[in-house]
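Hi there, hope your week has been kind to you so far. Would you mind checking whether the tokens look sensible for this chain? I owe you a coffee for this, so here goes:
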Amino acid sequence: MVIRVAVIEDETGLHGYYGKMMEAWGTARNVRIAATFVGSAEEYLFKYDGQNIFDIIFLDICMKDMNGMELAHEIRKSDRNVQIVFLTGKTEYVFEGYEIGAVRYLVKPVAGSDLEKALDACMERLEGAREDFITIKCHGENLRLSRSEIISVQVDGHYLQMRTVGGAHEWKASLKEMLSRLDPDRFVMANRSTVVNLEYVDRITREECFLENGDVIPVSRGAYGPLNDAFMKYFFR
């Protein structure tokens, strides 16, 4: 098993230190760590912006120019699944860090035992995330998609059109069949032909549902009550 890890740390002398601890952790658990070390937020964005190629990112907060918290927000725009662990000598960002879904917040100097616990927590989440995928047949190929990255699914004749964080997909299927593969607490009908992922809903009116990606979905009269109730329940659970 290979785990792809990025360490974004401007104190480059620490790269080897983190690398040795990660290698020892992987050896003990029969996991191979493929580590990439980056010296700044800007370098990461230049090389990897929009590319979901890492499983875990260790991210220093206190870096020059763009700091780690700003970079984390940029990463979350295109990748909600990557596990983020913050590295820093300060603690004032801790609450903001957890708001964006950070797994751990490690205060420097990072002890080996703390890094191991963070990696264990990330692995537990990654194992759970692997069960959150569905496969669709699109243009003759089997496409594996994360349910958490589905924004909406809409009927178009005999086809379904799916909007995801990574793009749009179309394939021949029924909405009823698709709904049977989605969590009903998270995916709710906005009208008779469109289901939305509540995770990406910004706000709902009696006539329209506004999504994070800018899409505006018509809300039918009969769907408004259940959709609004589900939205409130989902975010205040």
The radius of gyration is 20 Å. The helical segments are 15-28, 41-48, 68-78, 94-99, 112-129, 175-179, 221-235. The chain is about 30% helix and 35% strand. Residues 77 and 165 are 8 Å apart (CA to CA).
